[in-house]
Amino acid sequence: MTTSTRGTGQIPAVLVLEDGRTFRGRAYGAVGATFGEAVFSTGMTGYQETLTDPSYHRQVVVMTAPHVGNTGVNDEDPESGRIWVAGYVVRDPARIPSNWRSRRTLDEELERQGVVGICGIDTRALTRHLRERGAMRVGIFSGDAVTDEAAMLARVQEAPEMKGADLSAEVATKETYVVPAIGEKRFTVAAVDLGIKGMTPHRMAERGIEVHVLPATATLDDVYAVNPDGVFFSNGPGDPATADHPVSVMRGVLERGTPLFGICFGNQILGRALGFGTYKLKYGHRGINQPVQDRTTGKVEVTAHNHGFAVDAPLDGPADTPYGRVEVSHVCLNDNVVEGLQLLDRPAFSVQYHPEAAAGPHDAAYLFDRFVSLMEGQRA
Ligand SMILES: NC(=O)CC[C@H](N)C(=O)O
């Protein structure tokens, strides 16, 4: 067992928001300076999955759960090969992790990967501020990086904004790789990696799908070169308004009528491919406890979310698009934000939330079965 001293030590750290509000605490993880968009996650658990979700690239994540790190860090739960968050904010880090899978403390892991964090600040006050004012740029400064407040604020205000950020290529695989089907292979899927989480191909593999994960820059020819039964568009960081390339690839898939499924960024890309707009939410949805209603069945699912943008599609009845009629299939019950799109005349659908549930409840796992049914239907 390892214990960590940094989070409880005396290295001072300061969190500076772009509107000038500051919080003073202690260094957690690496010491230095980092910048990003301040967002909060309401997940009580699943911090390893959060930290390693590529969709958090360039975001500084504030945990609303006050006590983080209890189960340490294991080698099984990461959703990708590294931590992607730009910075990490915790009220009260666990000093002694306790779990049979734990290999090291969260503090050590953040330091090992050079992720600057802060602890010992009032994360409730910070979250309320972000709820009232909206997600905004932030800097965390610790050790020698702490200077006078005006200078730190100037650096925060120079950092790039999330609106207009084109980030998929920075996180996606550069080379195609294959995730083999578990058990008998039934289908081949081309998955366009815009920042894919490891659990997503795994959920497909569990259903007899061989998944070819392609770079974000893949062309329509690259997609069809794997002779797919279905095409998948993944989650990913950044502003969907910048995703012109995947939007054009997706239109090619819709034209051919190949079964199509999208998650999160993939849902926003489907929205754009159909001609809808996307917009930035005030502070977004992040956590593993968000209520979503399936409007076809009326059933409510508790779901995992991580999105700061949303699709602007009409909630009342099917809309006509160049690819036929489209319905908003799912909505978030907290704020009526569009959480899913279903084409009525083509085998294509998407959700804004995370049925792969890493971390999170498994209520929405049926969506992977729905994708399989579309591929079965196409074959029949
Ligand atoms: N998890 C995701 O795919 C996020 C999509 C997009 N970057 C957003 O913030 O809305």
UniProtKB/TrEMBL annotation:
Residues in Carbamoyl-phosphate synthase small subunit N-terminal domain copies: 11-141
Enzyme Commission identifier(s): 6.3.5.5
Active-site residues, as the UniProt record annotates them: 264, 354, 356
Domain of life: Bacteria
Keyword check for NADP: no
One GO molecular-function entry: carbamoyl-phosphate synthase (glutamine-hydrolyzing) activity
UniProt keyword list: Amino-acid biosynthesis, Arginine biosynthesis, ATP-binding, Glutamine amidotransferase, Ligase, Nucleotide-binding, Pyrimidine biosynthesis
BP GO annotations: 'de novo' pyrimidine nucleobase biosynthetic process; 'de novo' UMP biosynthetic process; glutamine metabolic process; L-arginine biosynthetic process
Enzyme class: ligase
List of residues binding L-glutamine: 55, 236, 238, 265, 268, 306, 308-309
Reaction catalysed by this enzyme: L-glutamine + H2O = L-glutamate + NH4(+); hydrogencarbonate + L-glutamine + 2 ATP + H2O = carbamoyl phosphate + L-glutamate + 2 ADP + phosphate + 2 H(+)
Region feature CPSase, mapped onto this chain: 1-185
The keyword Transferase belongs to this UniProt entry's keyword annotation: no
Annotated pathway: Pyrimidine metabolism; UMP biosynthesis via de novo pathway; (S)-dihydroorotate from bicarbonate: step 1/3; Amino-acid biosynthesis; L-arginine biosynthesis; carbamoyl phosphate from bicarbonate: step 1/1
Subunit structure: Composed of two chains; the small (or glutamine) chain promotes the hydrolysis of glutamine to ammonia, which is used by the large (or ammonia) chain to synthesize carbamoyl phosphate. Tetramer of heterodimers (alpha,beta)4.
Family: Belongs to the CarA family.
UniProt function note: Small subunit of the glutamine-dependent carbamoyl phosphate synthetase (CPSase). CPSase catalyzes the formation of carbamoyl phosphate from the ammonia moiety of glutamine, carbonate, and phosphate donated by ATP, constituting the first step of 2 biosynthetic pathways, one leading to arginine and/or urea and the other to pyrimidine nucleotides. The small subunit (glutamine amidotransferase) binds and cleaves glutamine to supply the large subunit with the substrate ammonia.
Protein known as: Carbamoyl phosphate synthase small chain
Native source species: Streptomyces mashuensis
